Amino acid sequence: MTEAGMKVPLKHRTLSAAIVDQLRQAILDGTYPAGSQLRQDALGEAYGVSRIPVREALFQLEAEGLVRIVPQKGAIVSELSLDEINDVFDLRGILEPRLLAQSAPAFTAKDLEGLDDIQKRFEKAIKARNVSEWGQLNADFHMALYAHARQPRTRAIVVALLQTSDRYTRLQLSNTKAMGIAEKEHAHLIALCRAQKVDEACRYLERHIEAVRADLLKVVGGGAMAPRTGR
After folding, report:
1. pLDDT at 219
2. Is the dihedral of CA 152, 107, 194, 191 positive or negative?
3. What is the pLDDT of residue 61?
4. 167 near 78, Cβ under 8 Å?
5. CA separation for the pair 97, 207 (Å, rounded)
6. Which of 38, 59, 89, 216 is most exposed by smallest CB count within 10 Å?
């Protein structure tokens, strides 16, 4: 294959990825609420592209759990699900403390400064009620905690879990009390890492994830608890 020939699929994949990013953001910020139908022809016209990159973008969003592909109906924005919350947060509670346990002992002053910077931006977004930044900064904070973990596959899984939980986290952070708790708990995690109290930090992280889950179940399910499989 010539160099010129290789440029076409690369451009195509880049276009599809850009559509994924825009559609994901539109679903997360409520532009396309749960149950909305995402028509390929309308999206293609809106983005000025053919159906092919739109179709690929919708398949990617289906893999992320944000969209369901339904026969005869096409792509539908997924409903908020108690079962998905439990599934995602069960996995996060298992995987993230493991990553932190390996990463935290290798933290440098620069790493801690980076965490402090994300925390400041998170606090600023909360004060400004900037919904579009909450989820991304929350994910950035958690992944910065795991920067030195030598578990690339686990980290990739956690990135996907954080992406899925972003939609729910925005709901959980939609009230002042929850925002204040998140801010304080993130700050305490930084303090424990700075003091190299790694075991305590890992236990606190697990409790933090579990507390977010419990709050989300109240918000999404009106306090109802979905059946869970044990760890």
Report:
1. 76
2. negative
3. 87
4. no
5. 10
6. 59
160 and 216, same structural domain? yes
Kindly state whether residue 89 falls inside one of the protein's structural domains: yes
Between CA 193 and CA 111 the distance in angstroms is 10
User: Which residue, 77, 93, 113, sits at the end of a domain?
Assistant: 77
Query: What are the residue ranges in the chain where pLDDT is below 50?
Result: 1-10, 223-231
- Examine residue 106 and state whether it is found in any structural domain, yes or no: yes
Same structural domain, 96 and 123: yes
- Write down the pLDDT at residue 176: 59
pLDDT of residue 34: 84
The answer to whether residue 228 sits within a structural domain is no
Same domain, 69 and 169: no
* Burial state string for 117-128 with b = 16 or more CB within 10 A and e = fewer than 16: ebbebbbebbee
Q: How many domains does the chain have?
A: 2
Q: What is each CA distance from 74 to 78, 92, 96, 197, 223, in whole angstroms?
A: 12, 31, 35, 50, 32
So what's the pLDDT on residue 3?
38
Same domain? For 115 and 192 the reply is yes
From 32, 50, 77, give the residue that closes a domain. Answer: 77
- pLDDT (tens digit per residue) in 30-41: 788 888 999 999
> What is residue 228's predicted lDDT score, i.e. its pLDDT?
46
Q: Are 211 and 220 in contact (CB under 8 A)?
A: no
* Residue 231 maps to a domain: no
Q: 28 and 121 share a domain? A: no
Cα dihedral 188, 181, 77, 41 sign: negative
Q: What is the CA radius of gyration of the chain?
A: 19
